[in-house]
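Students often ask why we bother predicting the structure of a whole assembly rather than each chain alone. The short answer is interfaces. A chain on its own may look different once its partners are present, and contacts between molecules only exist in the joint model. In this exercise we take two input lines together and write out one structure for the complete complex. Read the inputs first and try to guess which parts will touch.
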Amino acid sequence: MRFACDTGGTFTDLVVEDADGTWQLFKAATTADDPVRGVLDALRLAADAYGLSLAALLARGDVFVHATTHAINAVITARTARTALLTTQGHPDILLLREGGRPDPFDFRIAYPPPYIPRSLTFEIDERIDADGSVYRALDEASVIATCRELAAVKIEAVAVCLLWSVLNPVHELRVGELLARHLPGVPVTLSHLLSPTPREFRRASATAIDASLKPLMGAYLGSLTERLGQAGFAGRVLVVTSQGGVMDAAEVAAAPIHVVNSGPSMAPVAGRAYVELEGGGDVVVADTGGTTFDVSVVRDGRIPLARELWIGAPIIGHLTGFPSVDVRSVGAGGGSLARVDDGGVLHVGPDSAGAKPGPACYGRGGTVATLTDAALLLGYLDPAFFLGGTMKLDVEAAQRAMHAIAAPLGVTSDEAAAAIVELATETMTQAIVDITVKQGIDPADAILIGGGGAAGLNIVFIARRLGCKRLIIPGTGATLSAAGALISDLSADRRATRHMSTSHFDRDGANAVLERLEDECRVFAEGPGQGAIATTYSYSVEARYADQAWEIEVTLPGARFTADGDVAAFRRAFDAEHERLYAFADPASAIEIVGWRVGVACRLREPKPGTLRERVRGGAPRDRTIRLPDNRVVMAKVCAFESLPVGVLQNGPAVVESAFTSVAIDEARFRRSEAGSLVIEL
Amino acid sequence: MSAPETPQLSGARLGVLRSRMDGIARKMSNALLRAGRSGVLNRAKDLSCCIVTADCRLLTAADSLPIHVLSGPDLMARAMHEFHPVLAAGDAFLHNSPYHGCSHAADHTILVPVIDAAGTHHFTVLVKAHQADIGNSIPTTYMAQARDVYEEGALIFPAVRVQQDYRTNEDFVRMCRSRIRVPDQWHGDFLAMIGAARTGERELLALGGELGWSTLHVFAEQWFDYGERRMRAAVARLPAGSAQGSSTHDPMPGTPPEGVMVRAAVHVRPGEGVIEVDLTGNVDALPCGLNVSESCARTAALIGIFNTLDPDVPKNAGSFRCIDVKLRDGSAIGGARHPVSFSVSTTNLADRVVASVQLAMATLAPDSAVAEVGAVNPPHKGVVSGRDPRDGRRFVNQLFLGSTGGPGSAVSDGWLTYSHAGNGGVCFVDSIEMVELHHPLRVHRRALVADSEGAGLHCGAPSLEVELGPTQGTLNIAYVSDGIVHAAQGVCGGGEGGRAAGARRDADGVLRNLASMGQIELAPGDRVLSTGTGGGGYGDPRRRDPQAVLHDVLDRRITRERAETVYGVRILADGTLDAAATARLRE
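Now the answer. The structure tokens for the assembled complex follow.
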């Protein structure tokens, strides 16, 4: 048996795969004070469903894959270790100055963000490496030792070391690491060039600082998880989902916890890719709608693109992880997004959210402001008696009261206001998809849209219409998309190096030496943690740009090495094509500069094919009802139970398809259940 | 333009369409940022993208630099119409003429009229980007010493058609390649700008096709009305009255010996929902490059007003209706004519205009006041040029190693990386490693200067000090550093920000002060020591939260002495607050 468990802000999702490959979904409440308890609660639900004791269930398990928000929550709530930053003399303000930018040039209410590590815990080291990797000023070891004493005196719990140009010549950083180990034993240290060997000191320093600050906490958390699973009877392997869409052994994560900072959302595209493969493949846009945020990721040519700009918190004023992560665009829009009308009479929806408490007005927990969920309820997209499979009754009158406060200043009826809220939320979500697809060079009209998350069904069909998508898929596991992805993801590692090289003076031997070294490092991984994989694949890419551009794009190399002159020409063509796709022009006359090199290895632990879902069938057939579409047409909708839809039979909307986990509002689009069990909507 | 048959749009539809229009502007600027070649464009993001109506009113400028766009796109679009009465799909125009509505010659702007299949012109998209070089007589895009446009030497393009039928006029390209330094860099930026403008055109055409043009025109009118309504509501909350503000630019060649005092008189008339900004009391045009173009003068006045209002008021032609900016013909502030030089129009004197307006507003409405922003451009924000010994190639580029200068305000401490008043903190700050990778120079030091903040209840940002020099070969730096004499002023009892300073330490070890502006040449072993300005403070420093003062001391931003004498906060040697002594000091 295999288990995948995604601890989110509100729910802990569990997907269990039994020996015959069948899947079952479970949801338990997340227990923020002790998240492992929520994990064990979800496992107990599963044990009950299988008619086993917890120990007997766990004894059958060989792999437990975990996605967790523990790291990111610690950063957001500033509960990380007391961490010092060691940096090159003369540059104490790398984390403070950041990279500039301001969210709104006229808004003085937004305060300048404090640095991740304060100046009072920043220490300058007397040394300097130059931009060509040579030593400009030798390391003053005595000053490092003196700094170690100061660090001990101020009770530092972790140390981040980020020296200028360590990525080209790590000699000083390595020596500082040795001195820290000797003079400050037992305190975890992160060296920037080992963690993220890429230029741009702010991003690297930020990554290093976040990583070091998470080490004590994540070491303890993952230790506790492994130990308590073991005590409960689990003897298999514990893997943790990384921000890069792979999994790593828990012990390895504890040594570099920044890898799991975006642990949950990175799995949505892994699942999305697998579900689209079952339906014939293509580029994929994965939209995951939660209560507060709307997360979008993409799959292009079968690959999940990474971004360097993952912010914890809002862009510019949050913390930049400075580390490659699955490119996920998040906007503050979801089922709990609050509606308001400003003093100029214009409607806004989000980014503020009612959250889990008090939640939407219709939850009856004290919320009085209308949310997207309230709007969906009034429009007929949700059945007040069958929310979460009927486990929670929705209060229609509370939703109406809240909506009246929106409708009155707009001068429209409550139903019209509800339709407008859905339309506006749809627009915000659409913009998020447009943003990321533009950046990744995908035309959403040609891509397949995947709807995940409990609130996806409220408006995913309307989003698909806005984008011009022709096909929309809502997997049976849609409400637990990340956990589903975690179950089928590969064990993976990524090795990177910085070496500047231009196509105008291309050094084939130098390039091949870098690639060979990185490949060797990946092979060590494949033969260690990756042992026993059913398939192992290596991938080779570079970060490159036209001469004088500042921002690189990632381009897959045509081969593993540059063996003939033609290989450089082939790379040049690949780069030009990629640039054209992203920015609408290529400049074949310009030299191309390679800045970063990457070799990745993926060790396939099982076939990346989702299992067949075992569903609980709803008692009694649901009744048809009228719904109001965002364009204010009121239509009669057929109401169908997700699990009872006949496979392969194309039906016409309007309809609402309901399961215990989600409810999908469909306009005149046609829909069917696929062989693989997904709801496929054709527009 | 509005078609009478199209019904009025609901507040909900307005929100949707606003989001789509802003999305188009953002998409353009993202494309330009990522694909541009020069550091000023792609590292610093000194660029703006916006949409104006067919009759040249600013609809949206999401994600833009304020000084680039509040006024200017309107004037430039008008020049395009005047010079080219017949517009066709496939046209693109290059405009950088400050005599015809551009901010200054360095801001190359591509205008593309958005024309549907029936030949009707609906909107115009603009892409503006500060260039690394524009063919000036010396390698800088800020030539304060230029006595006129001839000495400045910039190539001037008053809405010149550079594309027809979507094809570039290669004659024009050859002209630019012959006169602009590092021509490949310029050409790369040009391609990226055209690409971004065409992206905007495509998106708007698709939107018009999807929703119908009349809907978009109705939206535009309602959006302007909405802007005006929001603005009137904001003005109505202000007290009625008039006030003056002034701010003095340091003396430089071409200015009076005491410098240039910029004055603004602001009249707030809440009953009419109007604010008048009178800039007519300023000096005549100057025989140097500091003159402020019409677009920058109007924009600077608007920035000073918007900074002190509810930030949610839209910045569009509708809200602008409520601000009446008065300029005087022949004045250095928005009234000078060809052939005077506007080379440095976007920063130095324009920033002093913003300050004058903010100071006047601070008198009228202290509850929403904003202090003066620090002045620019010290050598570490200058234009560097030379030949890179590593590959023999020439380079020219503006450095953005960071200017602080953010003003304290009624609601917060100064934004640390504010850059300058016309910028509002939008630009990026250079990474040391990226600067060293692209240029043969080494940044030895970049750090805040202790005790240089504008003290206050809310502090202005402290100064930043940068020390740099060439690694090999000679390095030229051109700069125009205001704020050495006249610091950024505080408001409502706040103190002034730190002053700028510049010096060079040559290989002989001798430290020599630099003039406030100029072009210097550094050889290996020489270094320039460049200090930027701090921002002014807001409110009495003795009302600042003692815990905030304690943090400033622990973070070495201010000394314990300053905490005591300026803030009335005593910090003990062990780094804790002496609450009793603090209370006594603050009595």
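Check your guess against this: Chain B has a mean pLDDT of 94.
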